[in-house]
Amino acid sequence: MVVRQHRRRGVAMVAAAVTAAGVVATSTGCSGSEGAMADDRPLGDPAAVRGAADVLAEAGSSKARTSLVMATGGTRVTIRGEGGYDFRKRMGRLSVVLPKDPAGADEHRPIAELLAPSTLYMKNRGAGVPEDKWVMLDSTTLADGNLVTGGATDPLTAAELLRAAKDVVHVGEQELAGVRVSHYRGVTDIGRSAKQAAPYAREALAAAARGFADDVVPFDAYLDEEGRLRKVRHQFSYPNQGRTVAVASTTLLYEFGVAVGVRLPPKDQIFTGKIKV
Prior knowledge:
Layout: H1 2-5, H2 12-21, H3 46-50, H4 52-59, E1 61-72, E2 75-86, E3 91-97, E4 111-116, E5 119-123, E6 134-138, H5 155-160, E7 166-176, E8 179-189, H6 190-196, H7 199-211, E9 216-224, E10 229-240, E11 243-254
Antiparallel strand pairs: 1-2, 1-11, 2-3, 3-4, 4-5, 5-6, 7-8, 8-9, 9-10, 10-11
Helix pairs in contact: 6-7
């Protein structure tokens, strides 16, 4: 299968955009020192953060926007996505936009992505894949568990990653897209989250625990008055070709209850050839 050809290089599918874009940043924007915890901040509610995935399942569905900022050395690349997610069916769809080339020309078509339990489907993948074909990846075999491979973190998996939240502090309350939210900050552990996550997410998170450079992940989570996760940002780091790549992954959820239809491609639309990276 295609997946086995890329078991240890899953992140290269998106990480290659760092080299291709050639964008030089004045700052990485991924520093974990931003807004360091103050001793006088009140303790947060770890239970509310850890149960975010369960509350999303009760909410049913929502629209989603994602942002993945990848930084290594003096290079920074931002990949953005937009779509919707059905939390009960654990399925979603995103349109992911890669950065422009150094000359400013937009050479990349948006990548269509379908998210399903343990599986990622990508269309307009390029690199030798026919335009009418989908690439199917088993996220349990990817070195990052599909936390960054698709250029976005699966929204429900992002919530599952909070299962092991600790050192949670309540930063404060604020307005987010017109909604009053509570801002929590803390760290989570990928390996521990894998053990505590819902069955569908365990293997993928276990793969990520083995593949990332650091198992401890700082996060910022924003919950509304009903306990629904409105925004979450994780700060990952993983090794790639001898370098450590810092990744800030942000997911924004809104318009809960919206209809989200996801139709998985039939077998004859799945590309089975070798993928170039």
